[in-house]
Amino acid sequence: MIDPLATLLAWLEEAKARGVHEPEAMVLATATLDASPSARVVLFRGLTDEGALRFFTNYESRKARELDDNPRAALTFHWAVLGKQVRVEGRVARLAPAASDAYFAGRPRLSQIGAWVSPQSRPIPSLNELVERRSEREAEFAGGAVPRPPFWGGYGLVPSRVELWTSGEGRFHDRRLFERDGQGWTLAILAP
Ligand SMILES: Cc1cc2nc3c(=O)[nH]c(=O)nc-3n(C[C@H](O)[C@H](O)[C@H](O)COP(=O)(O)O)c2cc1C
Questions:
Q1: What is the mean pLDDT of residues 53-81?
Q2: Does ligand 1 have an atom closer than 6 angstroms to the CB of 18?
Q3: Is 103 exposed, middle or buried, given 0-12, 13-18 or 19+ CB atoms closer than 10 A?
Q4: Is the CB of 169 under 6 A from ligand 1?
Q5: Model-wide pTM > 0.90
Q6: 87 lines ligand 1 (CB under 6 A)
Q7: DSSP-based three-state secondary structure for 37
Protein backbone atom coordinates (compact mmCIF):
# COMPACT_ATOMS: atom_id res chain seq x y z
CA MET A 1 0.00 0.00 0.00
CA ILE A 2 1.19 3.53 -0.69
CA ASP A 3 2.43 5.58 2.23
CA PRO A 4 0.20 8.68 2.48
CA LEU A 5 3.09 10.70 3.93
CA ALA A 6 5.18 9.94 0.84
CA THR A 7 2.26 11.22 -1.25
CA LEU A 8 2.06 14.36 0.92
CA LEU A 9 5.76 15.06 0.23
CA ALA A 10 5.29 14.39 -3.48
CA TRP A 11 2.30 16.77 -3.70
CA LEU A 12 4.30 19.43 -1.84
CA GLU A 13 7.08 19.11 -4.43
CA GLU A 14 4.45 19.38 -7.19
CA ALA A 15 3.10 22.57 -5.57
CA LYS A 16 6.63 24.03 -5.40
CA ALA A 17 7.24 23.11 -9.05
CA ARG A 18 3.99 24.90 -9.99
CA GLY A 19 5.21 28.05 -8.22
CA VAL A 20 2.69 28.02 -5.36
CA HIS A 21 3.38 30.82 -2.87
CA GLU A 22 4.00 29.40 0.65
CA PRO A 23 3.39 25.78 -0.43
CA GLU A 24 4.27 24.58 3.11
CA ALA A 25 1.41 26.57 4.68
CA MET A 26 -0.99 24.36 6.60
CA VAL A 27 -3.90 25.14 8.89
CA LEU A 28 -3.32 23.86 12.43
CA ALA A 29 -6.47 23.25 14.47
CA THR A 30 -6.26 22.83 18.22
CA ALA A 31 -8.92 22.68 20.91
CA THR A 32 -9.20 23.58 24.56
CA LEU A 33 -10.13 21.00 27.20
CA ASP A 34 -13.76 22.14 26.95
CA ALA A 35 -13.62 21.49 23.19
CA SER A 36 -13.50 25.07 21.86
CA PRO A 37 -11.55 24.89 18.59
CA SER A 38 -9.14 27.43 17.15
CA ALA A 39 -7.18 27.38 13.90
CA ARG A 40 -4.29 29.25 12.34
CA VAL A 41 -1.72 28.80 9.56
CA VAL A 42 1.76 27.48 10.37
CA LEU A 43 4.55 26.23 8.11
CA PHE A 44 5.27 22.54 7.60
CA ARG A 45 8.93 21.95 8.39
CA GLY A 46 9.44 18.36 7.28
CA LEU A 47 8.93 14.93 8.81
CA THR A 48 10.79 13.48 11.78
CA ASP A 49 12.39 10.03 11.41
CA GLU A 50 9.25 8.66 13.08
CA GLY A 51 6.98 10.28 10.47
CA ALA A 52 5.69 13.17 12.59
CA LEU A 53 4.89 16.47 10.83
CA ARG A 54 7.05 19.28 12.24
CA PHE A 55 6.20 22.91 12.85
CA PHE A 56 7.82 25.58 15.03
CA THR A 57 6.30 28.19 17.26
CA ASN A 58 6.27 29.96 20.61
CA TYR A 59 5.71 27.50 23.48
CA GLU A 60 3.70 30.16 25.36
CA SER A 61 1.39 31.04 22.46
CA ARG A 62 -2.32 30.30 22.45
CA LYS A 63 -1.83 27.21 20.29
CA ALA A 64 0.90 25.94 22.63
CA ARG A 65 -1.26 26.41 25.69
CA GLU A 66 -4.08 24.53 23.99
CA LEU A 67 -1.68 21.74 23.00
CA ASP A 68 -0.37 21.52 26.59
CA ASP A 69 -3.94 20.89 27.75
CA ASN A 70 -5.03 18.76 24.81
CA PRO A 71 -2.37 17.33 22.47
CA ARG A 72 -4.90 16.19 19.86
CA ALA A 73 -4.68 18.37 16.75
CA ALA A 74 -5.42 18.50 13.03
CA LEU A 75 -3.55 19.91 10.04
CA THR A 76 -4.90 20.80 6.59
CA PHE A 77 -2.97 21.61 3.44
CA HIS A 78 -4.66 23.00 0.32
CA TRP A 79 -3.04 23.71 -3.02
CA ALA A 80 -5.74 25.25 -5.21
CA VAL A 81 -3.71 25.03 -8.41
CA LEU A 82 -3.29 21.26 -7.92
CA GLY A 83 -6.89 20.68 -6.83
CA LYS A 84 -5.53 18.80 -3.84
CA GLN A 85 -6.09 18.80 -0.10
CA VAL A 86 -4.41 16.77 2.65
CA ARG A 87 -6.00 16.40 6.09
CA VAL A 88 -3.99 14.99 8.97
CA GLU A 89 -5.08 14.19 12.53
CA GLY A 90 -3.09 12.94 15.47
CA ARG A 91 -1.27 13.75 18.67
CA VAL A 92 1.31 16.45 19.02
CA ALA A 93 4.47 16.35 21.15
CA ARG A 94 7.33 18.79 21.56
CA LEU A 95 10.50 17.95 19.62
CA ALA A 96 13.70 17.18 21.52
CA PRO A 97 15.52 20.44 22.43
CA ALA A 98 18.44 19.50 20.16
CA ALA A 99 16.09 19.33 17.13
CA SER A 100 14.67 22.77 17.96
CA ASP A 101 18.21 24.14 18.44
CA ALA A 102 19.25 22.81 15.05
CA TYR A 103 16.24 24.34 13.29
CA PHE A 104 16.56 27.67 15.13
CA ALA A 105 20.26 27.95 14.23
CA GLY A 106 19.33 27.90 10.53
CA ARG A 107 16.75 30.72 10.72
CA PRO A 108 17.51 34.25 9.50
CA ARG A 109 19.03 36.37 12.28
CA LEU A 110 16.12 38.82 12.29
CA SER A 111 13.67 35.95 12.85
CA GLN A 112 15.88 34.59 15.64
CA ILE A 113 15.82 37.94 17.42
CA GLY A 114 12.10 38.28 16.69
CA ALA A 115 11.49 35.02 18.53
CA TRP A 116 13.11 36.53 21.64
CA VAL A 117 11.09 39.74 21.62
CA SER A 118 7.60 38.60 20.60
CA PRO A 119 5.37 37.36 23.44
CA GLN A 120 3.25 35.59 20.82
CA SER A 121 -0.53 35.70 21.31
CA ARG A 122 -0.38 38.16 24.24
CA PRO A 123 -1.53 41.79 24.10
CA ILE A 124 1.21 44.38 23.48
CA PRO A 125 1.03 48.20 23.67
CA SER A 126 2.08 48.49 20.01
CA LEU A 127 4.18 46.81 17.36
CA ASN A 128 6.55 49.79 17.61
CA GLU A 129 7.43 48.77 21.13
CA LEU A 130 8.56 45.35 19.83
CA VAL A 131 10.66 47.04 17.17
CA GLU A 132 12.45 48.94 19.95
CA ARG A 133 12.97 45.80 21.96
CA ARG A 134 14.33 44.10 18.87
CA SER A 135 16.98 46.82 18.50
CA GLU A 136 17.96 46.36 22.14
CA ARG A 137 18.28 42.61 21.68
CA GLU A 138 20.26 43.05 18.47
CA ALA A 139 22.78 45.12 20.44
CA GLU A 140 22.85 42.51 23.19
CA PHE A 141 23.59 39.64 20.78
CA ALA A 142 25.93 41.67 18.55
CA GLY A 143 28.92 39.71 17.35
CA GLY A 144 27.66 36.34 18.58
CA ALA A 145 25.19 33.62 17.70
CA VAL A 146 21.60 34.10 18.87
CA PRO A 147 20.66 31.23 21.20
CA ARG A 148 17.21 29.63 20.97
CA PRO A 149 14.80 31.09 23.51
CA PRO A 150 13.68 28.40 25.99
CA PHE A 151 10.06 29.36 25.19
CA TRP A 152 10.37 28.70 21.45
CA GLY A 153 10.67 25.37 19.62
CA GLY A 154 9.17 22.64 17.53
CA TYR A 155 6.34 20.16 17.66
CA GLY A 156 5.74 16.93 15.80
CA LEU A 157 2.24 15.75 14.98
CA VAL A 158 2.17 11.94 14.83
CA PRO A 159 -0.55 11.13 12.31
CA SER A 160 -3.24 8.58 13.12
CA ARG A 161 -5.40 9.59 10.12
CA VAL A 162 -4.38 11.05 6.78
CA GLU A 163 -6.85 11.90 4.02
CA LEU A 164 -5.60 12.48 0.49
CA TRP A 165 -8.19 14.49 -1.44
CA THR A 166 -8.12 15.17 -5.16
CA SER A 167 -10.66 17.36 -6.90
CA GLY A 168 -12.86 15.48 -9.35
CA GLU A 169 -15.32 16.37 -12.05
CA GLY A 170 -18.89 17.12 -11.01
CA ARG A 171 -17.80 17.13 -7.36
CA PHE A 172 -16.92 13.42 -7.54
CA HIS A 173 -13.72 14.06 -5.62
CA ASP A 174 -11.31 11.24 -4.87
CA ARG A 175 -11.04 10.80 -1.08
CA ARG A 176 -8.63 8.25 0.37
CA LEU A 177 -8.60 7.91 4.13
CA PHE A 178 -5.56 6.18 5.64
CA GLU A 179 -5.75 5.10 9.28
CA ARG A 180 -2.77 3.91 11.28
CA ASP A 181 -2.66 0.18 11.83
CA GLY A 182 0.53 -0.82 13.63
CA GLN A 183 3.42 0.01 11.31
CA GLY A 184 1.12 0.25 8.29
CA TRP A 185 -2.13 1.86 7.21
CA THR A 186 -5.65 0.75 6.35
CA LEU A 187 -7.35 2.47 3.44
CA ALA A 188 -10.97 3.47 2.99
CA ILE A 189 -12.47 5.33 0.04
CA LEU A 190 -14.89 7.99 1.25
CA ALA A 191 -17.87 9.47 -0.55
CA PRO A 192 -17.15 13.01 -1.72
C1 LIG B 1 1.69 31.75 5.71
C2 LIG B 1 1.79 31.82 7.22
C3 LIG B 1 2.75 31.06 7.87
C4 LIG B 1 2.87 31.09 9.27
N5 LIG B 1 3.77 30.28 9.87
C6 LIG B 1 3.85 30.26 11.23
C7 LIG B 1 4.71 29.32 11.88
O8 LIG B 1 5.38 28.48 11.26
N9 LIG B 1 4.76 29.38 13.24
C10 LIG B 1 4.02 30.26 13.97
O11 LIG B 1 4.12 30.26 15.20
N12 LIG B 1 3.17 31.12 13.38
C13 LIG B 1 3.06 31.13 12.03
N14 LIG B 1 2.18 31.99 11.41
C15 LIG B 1 1.36 32.89 12.27
C16 LIG B 1 0.16 32.11 12.82
O17 LIG B 1 -0.83 31.98 11.82
C18 LIG B 1 -0.44 32.75 14.07
O19 LIG B 1 -0.80 34.10 13.83
C20 LIG B 1 0.49 32.72 15.28
O21 LIG B 1 1.22 31.50 15.35
C22 LIG B 1 -0.28 32.90 16.59
O23 LIG B 1 -1.25 31.89 16.73
P24 LIG B 1 -1.90 31.52 18.16
O25 LIG B 1 -2.19 32.84 18.82
O26 LIG B 1 -3.15 30.76 17.84
O27 LIG B 1 -0.92 30.70 18.93
C28 LIG B 1 2.03 31.95 10.03
C29 LIG B 1 1.05 32.71 9.35
C30 LIG B 1 0.93 32.64 7.98
C31 LIG B 1 -0.16 33.44 7.31
A1: 98
A2: no
A3: middle
A4: no
A5: yes
A6: no
A7: strand
